[in-house]
Amino acid sequence: MLRVEGIEAGYGGLPVLKELTLAIERNEAVALIGANGAGKSTLVRAICGLLPLAAGRILQDGREIQRLPAHERTRHGIAVVLEARHLFGELTVRNNLELAAAHGERHGTAQRKFHLDDVIELFPFLRTRLDAAVQLLSGGEQQMVAIARALLLQPELLILDEPSTGLSPKVVREIVGALATLRSGGMSILLVEQNVALAVETADRAYVMALGAIVRELDAAAWKSVLGDETLLQAYLGS
Amino acid sequence: MNGTLLLQSVIVGITNGFVYALVGLGIAVVFRGTRIINAMQGEFSLVGGLVAFVVVEQLGWPLGVAAVSGVLAGGVVGFAMEWLLVRPTRRRGVGEESYLLLTLGVAFAISAAVLYFIGRDTRSLPGIGGEGSALVFDAAIRHHAIWLVVLSSAVMLLLRLFYDRTRIGLSMMAASIDEEGAATIGINVPLMRSLSFLLGGLVGGLAGVLVSPLVTIHYEMGLLLTLKGFAAAILGGLLNPFGAVVGGVTLGLIESLAVLSVSSGYKDVVAMTLLIVIMIILPNGILGRGSRKGG
Ligand SMILES: Nc1ncnc2c1ncn2[C@@H]1O[C@H](COP(=O)(O)OP(=O)(O)O)[C@@H](O)[C@H]1O
Ligand SMILES: [Mg+2]
């Protein structure tokens, strides 16, 4: 479904991503792991159009999208939850969600549509907080609003950049649970995570990233036993 | 002090205050949507007033048509400004402070163009509702002043509803609060910026149409209006939708009461001095902290 082919990108002439290639098939959940500073977030920003490419192609269902501005890429079935969430703090939860829903209704490509009720079912706390300003919510609640907002774009592929960072174990469980529900509904997922133990629960296979490139590809078998692979964890994650 | 005279000054102060509020509101609209301090807001009013004048006096069309033309002219100038100058400048990645210089430069250019093509003559529009007045305790209120207050209040309320209730208004807010967040949910952020300038231009054009029966249209009016409107917006808090009204009316009252106590030649000096004092005492505007909070 999504193919990233030999992309190069960076900040102000400083290259970060170097000839990076990866692919995600329909109905797959893929993890992207790697140490801090490996370039994971840079890759996410390049895929969703917030960072221009210096070289390479990005194809979504065979169509080149790398020249489209970010707001048009959402019409090709990709929704992203950025590392810093980028919610509209002064607006209410409802407004945050409705803005995405309005866009998703017109341009979403998903077979199975998400409605406000569906995301409330996924994250029940939303029901009572719809009219609160987002900036008044806790970090965990904000993360869930960010995921709900992305889902209302009606994507086929959901990209999440470290959704568990800084959240309490209870909230992390809730998010992992929601991702499992989405998986069983057929959503494709690219999960960027430093926490390998968490990523294993969601993803079917993984890419390992270091210094702006994919350095290892772990198939389902290798990925399942990754937690026992001390050398790999040492080498690429410093853990 | 004579009571009627005092009341008359209060009426004048409130009337002018609503003009400053409208100009300030236009500045706030542009600032809220683009984070640009628009030093040519008053120029939208100059153009709007002039176009309305040409339509009503030279083409002889009805005042209503002239007023609408003036408002639209302000919008066109606002949109063109963003499209032709702000957007290419942004693409070059300049800092926010450059836009102040850019808009100030365009303000002087428009002012100079008006001087060149139209000269130093002053013109004025007929008042809405005719030239009559209503009497309140012996003080006269021009019908136009009543229309001015009613129309500007209506516009302020409509703008409020627009930002709170409509999808496009909310998208404009979202784009200004978090550009990247907006882009990733499919909002065309550059378009929202153009619309903010368009809206600022429309409000500016309206201010021009409403002020031109009160003060004459002349090539220098833009910068003075910008200054007063900016003072109103700052006084009320740039991001509070009703801030500009509070700030504008405060400024208008200070000015008109200053004329009562000192000679009218000093009214701008007194008003601006008091303004500086207020800003030192209340750095977050009259409405306090919340009013300045942004995204
Ligand atoms: N906005 C930026 N400007 C300049 N360099 C950046 C910026 N963001 C990230 N980098 C650099 O790019 C590299 C990759 O960062 P990032 O993609 O955030 O890594 P990760 O998400 O894997 O932790 C790092 O060396 C980081 O310092
Ligand atoms: Mg990161």
Task: Please describe what this structure looks like.
The complex is a heterodimer of chains A (239) and B (295). Chain A has helices at 40-48, 70-73, 93-107, 116-122, 126-129, 139-151, 169-184, 196-202, 220-224, 230-237, and strands at residues 2-11, 14-24, 29-33, 55-60, 63-64, 78-81, 157-161, 188-192, 205-210, 213-218. Chain A has 239 residues and is α/β, with parallel strands linked by helices. In chain A, a hairpin with a 2-residue loop joins strand 9 and strand 10 (213-218). Mean pLDDT of chain B is 86; it is low at 289-295. Chain B has helices at 3-34, 41-58, 63-91, 97-118, 143-165, 167-177, 179-184, 189-211, 221-236, 243-261, 267-281; strands at residues 133-136, 139-142. The radius of gyration of chain B is 19 Å and the shape is globular. Chain B has eleven helices and two strands. Chain B has one domain: ABC transporter involved in vitamin B12 uptake, BtuC (Orthogonal Bundle). Chain B has 295 residues and is mainly alpha-helical. Magnesium ion (MG) is lined by residues 40-41, 83, 161-162 of chain A.
Question: What structural category characterises the helix and strand content of chain B?
Answer: mainly alpha
The radius of gyration of chain B is 19 Å
| Biggest interface found | A-B, 31 and 19 residues
* Number of spatially distinct domains of chain A: 1
**CATH-defined topology of chain A:** Rossmann fold
The total count of helices of chain A amounts to 10
C-alpha end-to-end distance of chain A: 32 Å
Record field, number of beta strands of chain B: 2
CATH topology-level fold name of chain B: ABC transporter involved in vitamin B12 uptake, BtuC
- Share of helix of chain A, binned: 25-40%
What strand order characterises the main sheet of chain A? 6-7-8-3-9-10
The arrangement of helices and strands of chain A along the chain is: EEEHEEHEHHHHEHEHEEHH
Assess the beta-strand content of chain A as a share of residues: 25-35%
Portion in helices of chain B? over 70%
